Amino acid sequence: MSKPDHPQSEQEKQQQEAQAHNVDSVEENMAEDDSEQQPGAEGWDLLQRIGELEAALAASKDEAASRKDAAIRAAAEAENVRRRAALDVQKARDFALEKFAAELLPVVDNLERALQTFDQTDESVKSLIEGIEMTRSSFLNTLEKFGVVALDPHGETFNPEHHEAMGMQESEEHPANTVIAVMQKGYTLNGRLLRPAMVMVSRAPSAGVNTTA
After folding, report:
1. What mean pLDDT is reported for the chain?
2. Is the pLDDT of residue 136 over 70?
3. Which of 28, 45, 145, 167 is 20 to 30 A from 130, alpha carbon to alpha carbon?
4. What is the DSSP letter of 36?
């Protein structure tokens, strides 16, 4: 036979009501927290605007870097053009007299040939020789002021860039490929060959034929 249920006391009812109230309060607080964490329409608009600004900033940085590279390349190209122009002007200045100087070289050649025709020991033509020598020296000095320099390679090693070989001659006194005679001097204009020197070049003597048995 079961025992009869005891009716709840007033204190127990109050405790149960208090527990139920606390549970409801916790659920309400949780709901409020969830609603606060979820952004509203204005929040979404703000996030979208921030994303757009960040994208625009990245694009602006890329464009600025591209323009900087273009400016650097343009400055380098302008400097190259300036240097080429300055070099062209310098070349034009250095070699503007090339044709004119080349036409004057035969005059120097004739003066030197004239000196070679005179007997240096003849007193009767001494004053004439001195006059021609002074004219030749003055002429050469004037040419040198404009960058024309004579090439007299006697005794030097043959240089095909500055010398033109008119022939070769056997020589025991000179090493092979040595300039042993200068028929006509050469000239340079500001370091550039204006006319090669015409020279005779030495070569090693040929071996004699052995006729002994």
Report:
1. 82
2. yes
3. 145
4. H
Which has the higher per-residue pLDDT, 72 or 36?
72
Q: Which residues are registered as beta bridge partners of 193?
A: 188
| Rounded alpha-carbon distances, angstroms, from residue 148 to 13, 43, 197 | 128, 86, 14
Q: CA geometry: angle at 115 spanning 112 and 120, to 5°?
A: 150
pLDDT at 33: 53
Q: Among 1-5, 117-121, 126-130, 170-174, which stretch is predicted with the lowest mean pLDDT?
A: 1-5
3-class secondary structure, 31: helix
Q: How many residues does the chain have?
A: 213
Q: What is the pLDDT of residue 149?
A: 94
The b/e string for 62-86 (b: 16+ C-beta within 10 A; e otherwise) is eeeeeeeeeeeeeeeeeeeeeeeee
Helices 98-117 & 126-145, crossing angle to 10 degrees?
A: 160
Assigned architecture for domain 98-203: Roll (2.30)
Please list, in sequence order, all residues whose beta carbon lies within 8 angstroms of the beta carbon of residue 164, skipping any fewer than 6 positions away. 186, 196, 197, 198, 199
Among candidate residues 173, 172, 161, the one with its CA nearest the CA of residue 199: 161
Q: Which residue has the higher pLDDT, 55 or 196?
A: 196
Q: What whole-number distance in Å separates Cα of residue 177 and Cα of residue 159?
A: 9
- Kindly state the tokens that stand for 85: 């122009």
Answer whether 164's CB lies under 8 Å from 183's CB.
no
